[in-house]
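Try this one yourself first.
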């Protein structure tokens, strides 16, 4: 697939303002180590980019969730929103965090993964229900709270909401994949459907 050009200019280090450089340095000097994806667009407003990168760092690296659980939530969000770049980045991160290829392939292919970890099932159920319907049943909300506490259910909700915003930014501005990477969700023509993808749910919550 031909590399796509973003719909907006993306600030480059050599032409950035002093305010943009401060934010860029904070991003590349943190755990991300690079600037990629939506933050490149957000840098048009340095205050927005700074707030964005701070909340993103909290939700990705400083919650009660082990990385494999966070990355499961993020990859599900990417699939729901048909976000090719978000998927490519976080599929890699998910594998590094311990998500199996089989789980990731199932999510990509709109199938229910086979989990051997009840906590992963719980994350899966919560994200699927919230992303598909915008609501969460009381029993499911309570189960997440029982395992991770009130802080966990707050963080998990914020995490999937944040990455939905990331996906919308990437999709709206058509920010391209990293050099050398190929599309995985829609490899044939690179064009996602006009509607969101339904995440297959596992059934009633007990």
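Now uncover the answer:
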């Amino acid at each position: 697939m031909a590399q796509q050009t973003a719909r907006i200019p993306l600030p480059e280090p050599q032409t950035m303002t002093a305010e943009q450089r401060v934010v860029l340095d904070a991003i590349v000097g943190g755990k991300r180590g690079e600037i990629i994806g939506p933050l490149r667009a957000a840098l048009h407003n340095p205050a927005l980019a700074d707030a964005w990168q701070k909340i993103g760092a909290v939700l990705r690296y400083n919650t009660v969730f082990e990385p494999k659980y966070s990355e499961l939530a993020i990859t599900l969000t990417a699939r729901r929103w048909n976000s090719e770049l978000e998927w490519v980045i976080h599929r890699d991160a998910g594998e590094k965090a311990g998500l199996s290829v089989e789980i990731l392939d199932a999510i990509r292919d709109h199938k229910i993964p086979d989990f051997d970890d009840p906590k992963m099932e719980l994350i899966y159920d919560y994200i699927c229900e919230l992303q598909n319907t915008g609501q969460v049943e009381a029993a499911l909300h309570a189960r997440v709270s029982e395992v991770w506490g009130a802080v966990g259910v707050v963080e998990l909700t914020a995490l999937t909401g944040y990455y939905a915003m990331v996906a919308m930014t990437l999709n709206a501005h058509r920010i391209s994949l990293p050099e050398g990477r190929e599309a995985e969700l829609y490899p044939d023509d690179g064009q996602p459907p006009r509607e969101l993808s339904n995440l297959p749910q596992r059934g009633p919550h007990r």
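Discussion: The chain has a mean pLDDT of 91. Residues 15-61 form one domain.
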